[in-house]
Write a structure and sequence with these properties.
Layout: E1 4-9, E2 17-27, E3 34-44, E4 47-58
Antiparallel strand pairs: 1-2, 2-3, 3-4
Length: 146
């Protein structure tokens, strides 16, 4: 029997219904130990759109996971990752404050391999850049207003 841990995050933003569901199932000692599912749905008066990516399976090269809550200060600081994680893989970040004026900027470098995806909120004004390993790679992009 596989041991599993389920992580779910959801959010609604700015009068429009922005819902995302991100589920990662971590299972030990088998192929396809990580299963990711994502859904982004927008319903804003005249516009409706939805993207769903269901049950995409990935191998976890080595067992190891770090799930914690970290207090973040007003100066840039490293996200603590325990020694059980030898190579950063799939991650989930969620802001836990309920005060609408607060935020945490998380800077990431994403590496999207075939079938991989990222779903999350973007900094409202920072430029978004991408660079491929080979010319002509197609990147599916859907960006919505904050």
């Amino acid at each position: 029997m596989k041991a599993r841990k389920q992580i779910t995050a959801g959010a609604a933003v700015c009068g429009a219904v922005f819902m995302f569901l991100f589920v990662i199932l971590l299972a030990a000692h088998a192929a396809d130990e990580i299963t990711a599912t994502a859904k982004l749905k927008v319903e804003n008066g005249y516009f409706e759109g939805e993207r769903v990516i269901n049950n995409v399976d990935f191998d976890q090269g080595a067992s190891g996971s770090d799930w914690h809550i970290q207090q973040i200060g007003t100066n840039s600081e490293a996200i603590t990752v325990v020694s059980d994680v030898s190579s950063n893989g799939w991650a989930l970040f969620r802001m836990l404050s309920t005060n609408s004026g607060e935020y945490v900027d998380v800077s990431l470098t994403l590496r999207l391999r075939p079938g991989y995806f990222f779903l999350g909120p973007l900094h409202p004004t920072n430029a978004i850049n991408a660079q491929a390993s080979t010319n002509g790679m197609n990147l599916d992009v859907w960006i919505n207003n904050q």
